[in-house]
Amino acid sequence: AVIVDEAWSKRSCKSNYNALSGVGCIIGARTKNEYYMDVKNRLCLTYKRKKPRQINKEHKCFMNWNKIATAMESNIILKRLQKSLTTHNLIYGKIIDGDSSVYKKL
């Protein structure tokens, strides 16, 4: 069994779903081991503040999401659950989550 949890960079209160980043993690329910954690970002401050030709070639950009904010969290969890067998040699038998968005995706 694993516990999955997701969060956004700002509270939405059932409206204004426009967070610029989201995080998702998978933790063993019994072992408390962290199996996975990832962050999705819809904004890069370097790109926002500078013109594209002014950006250094070695810039490490953290912008890795260009879809709607509501899909960030469940996408992080879903992608990792699909790779759990090859990554950790695990099949998650039970998923515990307080958020229904992941269950809908599964």
UniProtKB/TrEMBL annotation:
InterPro entries: Mutator_transp_dom (IPR049012)
Domain called Mutator-like transposase: residue spans: 2-106
Pfam families listed in its UniProt record: Mutator (PF20700)
Protein name: Mutator-like transposase domain-containing protein
Source organism of the structure: Asbolus verrucosus (Desert ironclad beetle)
